[in-house]
Amino acid sequence: MSTTKHDKDYKNNSIKTTDGDTRKVINQTFDDAKDKARKAIDETHRELPRYMQTMTDNQEQTVNAARDIIDNYIESQRDITNSFQNAWSSFFDNYFWISPKKITETYARAVSSISDGTIAAIRIWNGSILSSTETMRISTQHMRDNARETSRIAVNGAKMLEEATYLPNLTKGNNSSIENRAQ
After folding, report:
1. Phi, psi torsion values for 127, nearest 5 degrees
2. pTM for the whole thing?
3. Which end of the chain has less neighbouring CB within 10 Å, N or C?
4. Residue 118 confidence (pLDDT)
C-alpha cells in the first residue's frame, strides 16, 4: 500500500490542525483560570476595607472590654476594701497587733499589682498580634517571590524539554525554529 502525496499532506495538515486546536484549548483554559483568579483577587481586594474595619473593631472591643474589666475589678476591690476596713477596724484594733489600715493598704497594693499585670498582658498581646501581622506580611512576600521563581524554573524546564524533543522538518529547506513553530 503506497500512500499518495495527497494523503500525506492531509495527514500532516490534520495533525497540525489538531495540535493548533489543542494549543488553543490549553491556552484558553489557562486564560480562563487566570481571569477567575484575578476576579477572586479583585473581590478580596475590594473587601479589604471591611476586613480591616473588622480587625480594628475587634481590637477596639478587646481594649474596651479590658478597660471595663479593670475598672469594674478596681471598683469592686475598692468597695470590698472599704467594707472590710469599716467592718473590721474596731475588731482588729482591739484583738490584733496588725492595724486594719496596714491590711487595707496591702490589699489595695495587691489589687493595683493585679491591674498592672492585666494591663501589661494586654500590651503584650497587642504587640504579639502586631508582630504576627508583620510576620504574615513578610511570609506572604516570600511566598510570592518563591512562586515566581518556581514558575520561572518550571517554564524554563518545559522550554528545555520542548527544545530537546523538537525535530525540525529539514525537507525542502524548511528551517522552522521553535519560535516560528509557536506562532
Report:
1. -60, -40
2. 0.39
3. N
4. 81
